[in-house]
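Sample entry (191 residues):
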Amino acid sequence: MYEISGELTPYYEELDPVKRLEILSTLHDDAAPFLRELYDGRYSDHEGKGRQNVDWWLWRCLCLQGLYSRGGFFRRFRDRETAAILRELRMNDNDEQHRTFLYHEYRNTAGRYLSTCRSSGYASRFMGFRQASDDEKVMKACEDIWQMSGGIARVSGMGEKMSLWVEAFRDELYGYDDICREEYERLSREE
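Predicted structure, serialized as tokens:
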């Protein structure tokens, strides 16, 4: 459904921002100007602190995950902040060709997050003294991805607006480990 040219595949498979920019500069695809616009929005210094290669979209994933657990008294704040993040991540773009590129950019964002989930400190407990097993890391990664996609979409009531984001994150997670599909579906049913 979200088919791209073979020329774009290496760009979307690469997780390192510097290498992605190198690949982007060699592209001759008609989509290159839009992809450059997405790249600049994703890897720019949004806070003006002089930092380079900060993955703003990855940061916004963590923000969405944090907003997932906010409710009750903070519900209006959560929904307002979630709506602002949706605009930043261009989830309101309805152009079909743009949606294809956004889907792959969202998958790349999820892939970048998942690339950190096998590190030694990920999902550790007791202030890092108890290291997580490989299975615990995978289960935690499933929970994290669900919270920053399907979970926040559900609790904020923005499922329709976030459908492309949720689909991309889910698809990337399903390729991460064999047990992810079952765990993601369990989380979707329970919450």
